[in-house]
Amino acid sequence: MDQTVNIRKALRVFHSILDKGERHGNEYHLNGLRAESDFDGYTASLRNDYVSLDIFFHNKFAFHYSNSKEKDRFLEKIDAMDKT
Questions:
Q1: What distance in Å separates the CA atoms of residue 51 and residue 84, rounded to the nearest whole number?
Q2: Average pLDDT score over residue span 26-36
Q3: Which CATH number fits domain 7-83: 3.30.310, 2.30.30, 1.10.1740, 1.10.260?
Q4: Is the pLDDT of residue 40 over 90?
């Protein structure tokens, strides 16, 4: 498990995307990120074309990426969106 993810920050960005983003099917899109939740709302997903972050009940998470540069860019994007 990757300990570099600030789950509270990621959830704030997730809700910001839901509030301000454009809906495309089951996903909301904003500033290059996509947000989606499962049918019961217990799993929230943030992703772009290279990285995905799935947040589960009790703040457990799964972080998927092919290389660390893409992961770092994804986390920088979350940081930037959280500051606005």
A1: 22
A2: 97
A3: 3.30.310
A4: no
Long-range contact set of residues 25-33: C-beta below 8 Å, sequence gap at least 24:
30/81, 31/77, 31/81, 32/77, 33/77, 33/78, 33/81
pLDDT at 3: 55
Q: What is the mean pLDDT of residues 38-55?
A: 94
Domain ranges of the chain: 7-83
Paired tokens of 9? 């920050």
